[in-house]
Amino acid sequence: MSVLWPRQQCNCKITKNLILHQKNLWNAWITISDLRDTVTKKRHRLQLLRQKLKLASILKGQMTLLEDWALLEKDHSTSLLGAIESLKASTLRLPVVGGAIADAQSLKDAIGSAVDVMQAMGSSLCSLLPVVEELNSLVTELAKTAAKERASLEQCTDFISLLVAIQVVPRLPSTLQVRDSSLRAHIIQHNHVPPA
């Protein structure tokens, strides 16, 4: 009986150690699985942010066209106002009392010239109107996308801060650290860009 007692104690210790190691392995597996899920989600979010950045860079090129349109519109408005004033000066400000005489042919030529200028400006404006409407819808969409992007960037900043807080970042592969640094740099740059 005395020989069995130490053997049973040894078996109990081995069983306890085995259970303890199994629990540790299980907890480690759960932690690793959670970290993998987190990293996978971060990669997906990073890919989404990259796609949004590409879209923003494409739409940013369209903004110059819209700014050019503002300059053209100003020139057209100025020309139109000038034509209206010239037409008023040609017709409404004629002295019609006191025996004033006007050359009918020069008056007809002035009015015809003003009408021609206004028709040319009208056709020019009509041809540009669809482009302006399309740019307007693109700018509206860009504003919505920029707002969503800003929210996503803030969320990524929170996630990165969380990762740093639990000290997961030093254990990740170096490519993810580079992505993290790149994302931080983009966030800093994005915060310095004035909103459109």
From TrEMBL:
GO terms for cellular component: cytoplasm; nuclear microtubule. Transmembrane segments: none annotated. Pfam families: QWRF (PF04484). One of its GO terms (molecular function) is microtubule binding. This is QWRF motif-containing protein 2. Belongs to the QWRF family. It comes from Sesamum angustifolium. Signal peptide: none annotated. One of its GO terms (biological process) is spindle assembly.
